[in-house]
Design goal:
The chain has one domain: Fic-like fold, CATH 1.10.3290. With 230 residues, it is mostly helical. The relative contact order is 0.15. The two termini are 28 Å apart.
């Protein structure tokens, strides 16, 4: 399996070198990214709404939606810029990205315990977050296969659930940071795939396997090349 994953990674990396550049991350990709990420949270919003907002047409929309959409774009571009410069993601940068996403309510870990509706996994108690985040970045500094590291970056952050709100949006941005810094094209997780995506998260949180998610990522990278980076 490792040989297969490495071969897939190398093939995608070659394709990205041929087709992808940071200048090719256009408005259509970012609109789809923001739209799908926000509709995971059951927000009543259309793709046209998001495109209008990100095109500067704010007058017919709720101020909170405008801020949320604009902040999501800023946070994605923040991560893309880090990857473009080859700058490592640190705990401080993770908090910075969350602050961009959530405005003045971001960048601070939750201070009480939570549960996640519909999940068999309970996130760690709040007093263990710092230790879990330290372990998280220690693993990411290791020498695992890039595709394994990419999957772990997303799944483990979602499992820790360090912030009170915005964890899903942040974890999807972190995923794209590691895609980009590993030489791949960014991807979009469609909100239409919500059940499939949540099953990937559950398989990792409960069964401790990344394979379901890695196979899904392979499909999403293929879609990125077919739809956005031709």
């Amino acid at each position: 399996m490792e040989k297969f994953l490495q071969e897939k990674y190398e093939a995608f990396k070659k394709l990205a070198a041929e087709r992808f550049s940071y200048d090719k991350i256009d408005l259509e990709f970012i609109v789809d990214l923001v739209y799908n990420s926000l509709t995971f949270e059951r927000r009543v919003v259309t793709r046209e709404d998001i495109k209008n907002i990100l095109s500067g047409k704010h007058e017919n929309y709720d101020e909170n939606l405008v801020t949320t959409a604009e902040n999501h774009r800023k946070a994605f571009l923040f991560m893309a810029d880090l990857a473009k410069r080859g700058e490592p993601l640190t705990e401080s940068k993770l908090k910075d990205c969350h602050s961009i996403l959530m405005d003045e309510h971001g960048g601070m870990y939750r201070t009480f315990n939570i549960s996640i509706q519909g999940s068999q996994h309970t996130p760690p108690p709040h007093y263990k977050i710092y230790a879990r985040i330290d372990e998280y970045f220690e693993v990411l500094r290791g020498d695992d296969l890039p595709i394994n590291k990419i999957a772990y970056s997303h799944l483990q952050l979602a499992k820790i659930h360090p912030f009170l709100d915005g964890n899903g949006r942040l974890a999807r941005l972190v995923l794209n940071y590691y895609m980009l810094v590993s030489g791949l094209a960014p991807i979009i997780i469609p909100s239409a795939d919500k059940e499939k995506y949540f099953q990937c998260l559950e398989d990792y949180k409960v069964k401790k396997t990344t394979l379901t998610f890695i196979n899904y990522l392979i499909q999403l990278e293929e879609v990125s090349f077919e739809k956005y980076f031709k």
